[in-house]
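Summary for the funding panel

The consortium committed to producing paired sequence-structure records for every protein in the target list. Below we show the first two records in order, beginning with the earlier of the two.
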Amino acid sequence: MNFVKEFFLQTGILFFFSTFLFADFTIGLYDVKTSTDIVNAKEAGFNCVQSYISSCETINILAEEAKKNKVKLVVYPDKIMYDKKYVKKVQSYPIRAWYLFDEPDVCNLAKEKLISMNENTKKSYPDTDTVFVIGQGFTEIPYYDVADILMVDWYPVPHLPLESFGENVALAKQGLVMAGKDTKELWAVVQIFDWKEHKQYRKDTDRVGRFPKKEEIRFMSYDAIFNGATGLFYFNYYSNNKPLPEAKPKEWANVVEVIQEMSFVAEIIDNGKKIENPVEIEEPLKAKSFEYGGIKYTFIINPTSQRQTLPSLFFQPQFDVMYEKTTNLRKMLRKSKNNFQQYKVFAFRYE
């Protein structure tokens, strides 16, 4: 157990929520390229990394480093499964899933081609999961029954409502249910990049974008699980060809705070017991409550652009507000009826 996790366990700053319990909840980082990237990802709290690099030699290097750091890997199988030099080595790689394709819906890829990719990969590695990502929750071509895991990416900051992220996760979950794959894993990809750094459907001189704020990254992470995600990935680790710790150190520090928080969520998802909420929660607010280690936790989100009202029960002293730096927060909440900020998450701990 690392020192950060041990600290949080000793101080009781733990929380969890989920409709279902999933072992080995995946918290992944997109677009690693070097061994150092994997070390940084592990220190930040990620337990899985993805790379777009298809070079067999590089994948081998990344796999060895991932193994050292007890981190899982998501990479393309295209080249390495046909390279005789690496056939035996691959068996020892810590592969979480083989990455089949990036956004087939955006690329208008025929479903038959995706099925063929999946079948070819499973012939070589029948016991290893396969995964691909769609660029929106609903796709005209129903890819939902292909592969072992589905990912969905939707990057709303700053041009779309923040709640549209969770809505697209919910649409992807609905697609799985309609395809008879309701137990299939669903990983949501959270935005940690500035749209200005990417090609847009507008003139380069008129790009729109900014890096998401910590509160937005945190909200999207919670909102994804409330809407059915069973794992989280964060896109992406590089900004203008530099790793985030170097390119945007303040933004990376915010990401790390969220990831360490979510890594404790993952631990509790594996061990927690769902319980009734301590008070009725009225829509549009959403809440889930759990018990773990003799302590109860309630997590409430406001998935709207409007301020809402937090139930007064949570003003009582037995409810400890977690992950808030304002010491007189309880007093501030009492002063206002509409005290629940838009896209806000509250985590409460009580006995």
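The next record, for a separate protein in the list, is shown here:
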Amino acid sequence: MLEISNIISHFRESVKSKHMKIRFDKVCILLLYIISLGSARSQEILKTITSSTQKTALVEGITKAPSQIYTIEEDKKQSAYTLYDTSMKKIVEVTAKHSFSKEEIKHKSFDGSNIIYEITKGDDKGYWSLGGGYLGTKETLDGDIKTTSSYYNGVLKKNSVDVTPLFFMNEDYYVAFGRKKGDENYKKTWEEFEIFIYRKSLKTGEGSYHKIKAPEDNAFRNKSHKLAYAGKDFFILVINKNRDGGKHIYVAAYYDYEGNLLKSFDMTIKKAPGSQSFGYFTLSSGSFHQILRMDQIWQRQATNYNAYQQPTQDARAAWYYDYNEDAFYLYASAVNKKADDGVLISKYTNEGEKLWEHYEIVEDSKFTIGKSINRFMAVVATPQFTGFRVYSIKGKHYNHFYLFDKETGAILKKEYVKEKEYKKANYFNSYSGMMGIYSDSFASYMKTFEKSKQKNHFDYGYFTDRGFMLGISSKKKSEILFLNFEY
């Protein structure tokens, strides 16, 4: 198999020649032909993107739903934002009013068609949409929605009644979800509390309030609720309404952008038969919270150094939303005192019907509270399979991959990869590992890349409707090569 880095280096030098006035991305057509002579037919070079000058940095990212690539050419005067579909065809191309970096993007629509970035200096200080719409300052962006809740060290204050705020956007609106500011809004009984979305137009900057109807009484009271999806016409919130050691009940609530509840349904995951409880993993940003030592608090010497991480109920179970099917996956681990522990995953439709559930024993495993912050699970739904990985970064080594049939839940492949073998395989995230388990040709390609990784490095690897997309950038960040591996 031909070395991609060597081919790219050869053509890069050719492009720089004064006698060859051809753009580098056009050379990819010839590259595709050459590489196909020595590699699997499933591998395809989609595009090479280069910055307009050597002085501008080129960075890229991935949108959530659908999975697409966007690039930002960071210029000192004006930044260029481009969105590509999975065939690397341009679907959005905008030169912004200002210069901004990837780090200055504060919000992004799920499909990547619009963003909000922040200007921190000068006359235009504040938040702006991609099309040039001014949205306000940090103090006015969210209207009267309260941006904080009554938490201390990650724990909701005892006897307090509050709603965790959410902030997101689609291609047309910026949305702030929560309760309004003002003491008068906190003197009512819980039944009288009102929850709103503040919807702000990205074109005009005009905002309006819309009262939210809860899917059931007290649905948002001191509960863990998160955004699953925000599309053009509706958004989805998932509420963890019942959390204990052996059962989690989630509510999926669909809303339009006027606050109307379109539909809602329950989804339940229970501990596996014969198990004592769920285990502990880092499953989300809320899986652990920081606890300060009481002796340090009393001495008024509390610092982060004197803190430790305590798992929450969100360390026991979690959910994953599949945009392509409008379906949900619930997953957790199970602790067995007299046997090895295991993992559990189930699939639900967009009407709350459970399609399947699978429990798998993980050999020589114990998922107790000790070192649980170093254990992780990763779930992804592709057009061909549902991927599931159980792994650790410290302590006892776990690195188990499971590929499920999306329709039945039957295991298509499963594999334990030892730490040395995983590093040798050159996988750089859970998705690339799953693709390596699924596709022998992709696994072979990853091994050949090891020699060239000093000059180039992987930026992203993710699943699309066409296959597995791989982004490889040059060391100077002036050039990015995109490869696609078909399923």
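Regarding this second record: Residues 271-416 form a domain with the Lipocalin fold (CATH 2.40.128). The radius of gyration is 25 Å.
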